Amino acid sequence: MGSIFRHRFGMLVPLLFLSMMFSSSPSSVSAGSVGICYGRNANNLPTPLQAVALCRAKGITKVRIFDADPGVIQSFSDSGISLSITISNGDITGIALDQNVADKWIGDNVLPYVPATSISSIAVGTEVIFTNAANISSFIVPAMRNIFMSLKANNLDSSIKVVSPNSMSVLSKSYPPSAGIFDPTITYNIIIPMLSFLSQTGAPFMLNSYPYYAYVNDPQGVPLEYALFTSKVGVIDSNSQLHYTNLFDAQVDAVYAAMAALNFSNIPVVVSETGWPSKGDSSEKAANTQNAQTYNQNLINELVRDQAGTPMRPGTQVEAYIFALYNENLKPDPESERNFGIYYADGTEVYPLNFYGGTGTVVMQNRTWCVARNDASNGSLQIALDFVCGPGHANCDAIQEGGPCYEPNTYVNHASYAFNDYFQKSNMDPRACNFSGTANLTQRDPSYGSCIFYARLPSSGYLHSPQAYYGFSALVALVLLLLLRD
Ligand SMILES: *[C@@H]1O[C@H](CO)[C@@H](O)[C@H](O)[C@H]1NC(C)=O
Ligand SMILES: *[C@@H]1O[C@H](CO)[C@@H](O)[C@H](O)[C@H]1NC(C)=O
Ligand SMILES: *[C@@H]1O[C@H](CO)[C@@H](O)[C@H](O)[C@H]1NC(C)=O
Ligand SMILES: *[C@@H]1O[C@H](CO)[C@@H](O)[C@H](O)[C@H]1NC(C)=O
Ligand SMILES: *[C@@H]1O[C@H](CO)[C@@H](O)[C@H](O)[C@H]1NC(C)=O
Ligand SMILES: *[C@@H]1O[C@H](CO)[C@@H](O)[C@H](O)[C@H]1NC(C)=O
Fold first, then answer.
1. Which ranges carry the X8 domain (predicted)?
2. Which range among 361-365, 377-381, 411-415, 460-464 shows the weakest confidence by mean pLDDT?
3. What is the mean pLDDT of residues 79-89?
4. What is the pLDDT of residue 6?
């Protein structure tokens, strides 16, 4: 049946279908330095396998979990995603005091799962210092050493790094960034041993950086735009004369400065958590969807930008984990705590984020997309595709082999992309989203990974004359006639 279209519409259509039918190689683009924290302090989340599928669809290649749950670690096997796992604060003392306990932890939580699951690092505790686990602070580094010894005994010490995430509170001074310095009460007993260990083992210093809290704690002193990466002026560091356009860079550099003050200059900073809540209680005005989307998208754009880095370390791309994948309903008050997720617990997105980085900031608004119905027949979708990508003049480049929307290589996916392009170019006229009843309007962004389904706000003017729709109907009638005749 394809021959009819080849005669009528030239080469584009046959190329499209050949590629649809004979190839299935997945695109290999990835979001690089942007990871996500997969917290599970909730009783209503999708399964770990669904979380893995979601991360893969979004192009996320690094994930952090806050425990060492066997089911979760197993779910990430052969996923192409590297996983950072965590030793809970309660296990640190035992591991620090007894090498056998460390060996058992590695035997139970790591050895059964590698190399199928790519474990990138083991975090010894979470923000132990200056928290309610502060009394175990002095056990962190001994525990890190014992875990390292266990990994070494299993030849895993070069692939799995041993780290320990800290909050900004380990610095007693972080402004201006060049004056960053560790709190003197922990410097000699904990920080220097930790930095020595990290330096010797080639592991990064893990920092939880939350410009949100810096802003909330000092809204007079910290401009919101500076926290959201949208400041037009930024801040000049009066010592170094370096220009800071955002608080995230300033926090990272304050840690570099604090390490340099102790003569450690070869330890990279990895941001083990950062994020912004999309909702808060009535006193948490800055916690809203628009700020959350602005912060996280600008963060991603900054991280994936070529030659990105911080003013103190230009060209050294910062690696960061966004907190968090899902909203977590069991987190304690305030409301913002439960609303750091990019996704709701039902798997729908709180706001769109492009993990590959984009240009500028997307502002949250109600948008409408046109997609193929998943109950439409392949034949009818093919007919519609022939029209849309041919005389309909939709831009179908993205669904050609090698294009960002080629995978999954299905009629529904390819038709959805093409239908939407046509629909948007038709100024979102609902009549341009029918295609013999094979299409459906939706308010849910169908974008995934690097495949972006464009959507725009209504404006005047139609790119397609109504004749285009009549033309399509006539074409369909003709095709059906010919098909029936065959
Ligand atoms: C630290 O404090 C916690 C909670 O108060 C307690 O359960 C734990 O035994 C203490 N650990 C040490 C090593 O003192
Ligand atoms: C760092 O190195 C310099 C130069 O070698 C030395 O003067 C200084 O005391 C060192 N500082 C620390 C904290 O070790
Ligand atoms: C977006 O949609 C929601 C729910 O349908 C509605 O409450 C809200 O007013 C809409 N916002 C805009 C800007 O149209
Ligand atoms: C079409 O869209 C409606 C409204 O969004 C939805 O309820 C329905 O499930 C969709 N149908 C198909 C087949 O995708
Ligand atoms: C329709 O095409 C999809 C691939 O796009 C294929 O998986 C499915 O089996 C086809 N359905 C029928 C009924 O041929
Ligand atoms: C969509 O197309 C079908 C079949 O051509 C037609 O019956 C239906 O009325 C159309 N719907 C709209 C809203 O135009």
1. 368-453
2. 460-464
3. 96
4. 27
Residue 346 forms part of a structural domain: no
Q: What is the pLDDT of residue 324?
A: 98
Q: Where are the alpha helices (DSSP H) in 281-329?
A: 289-304
Domain assignment of residue 101, given as a range: 34-338
Mutate to test the pocket of ligand 6, among 436, 440, 441, 472 (most ligand atoms within 8 A of CB): 436
| 475 C-alpha to ligand 6 centroid (Å) | 15
3-state SS assignment for residue 86: strand
DSSP code string of 416-435: HHHHHHHHHHTTT-GGGS-T
Cα–ligand 6 centroid distance for 11 (angstroms): 29
CA distances (Å), 59 to each of 50, 73, 108, 157, 239, in order?
Answer: 14, 19, 30, 27, 40
Q: Sorting pLDDT into bands at 50, 70 and 90, what band is 16?
A: very low
The answer to whether residue 352 sits within a structural domain is no
Same domain, yes or no, for 133 and 255?
yes
Calculate the average pLDDT of the chain.
86
Q: Among all ligands shown, which has an atom nearest to the Cα of 480?
A: 6
**Contact in structure between 159 and 112 (CB atoms under 8 Å):** no
Are both 91 and 206 inside the same structural domain? yes
265 ligand 2 Cβ < 6 A: no
Counting the structural domains of the chain, the total is: 2
Locate 429 and state its tokens. Answer: 């006229």
How far, in Å, is the centroid of ligand 1 from the Cα of 133? 7
One domain, residues 374 and 331: no
To the query of whether residue 349 is one of the catalytic residues in this protein, the response is no
Longest dimension (CA), the chain: 87
Name the pLDDT band for 469 (thresholds 50, 70, 90): very low
Question: Comparing C-alpha atoms, which of 149, 182, 152 is closest to residue 267?
Answer: 182
285 shares its domain with 215: yes
Both 268 and 373 in one domain: the answer is no
Q: Are residues 248 and 395 in the same domain?
A: no
Q: Which of 273, 302, 328, 337 is catalytic?
A: 273
| Ligand positioned closest to the Cα atom of 20 | 5
Residue 275 CA to residue 296 CA, distance in Å, equals 6
Please say if the pLDDT value at position 31 is more than 70: no
Q: Are residues 54 and 170 in the same domain?
A: yes
Out of 287, 320, 338, a domain closes at: 338
Residue 37 and residue 296 in contact, taking contact as beta carbons nearer than 8 Å = no
Ligand 3 midpoint to CA 288 (Å): 15
In this structure, which residue's CA is closest to atom 14 in ligand 4? 373
Give the pLDDT score at 480: 55
pLDDT of 448: 77
Pocket test for ligand 2, best of 187, 195, 263 (most atoms within 8 A of CB): 263
Name the strand (E) or helix (H) holding 309.
Answer: none
pLDDT band at 444 (very low <50, low <70, confident <90, very high): confident
Mutate which of 21, 411, 417 for ligand 5? The one with the most ligand atoms within 8 Å of its CB, which is 411
Q: Is the CB of 366 under 6 A from ligand 3?
A: yes
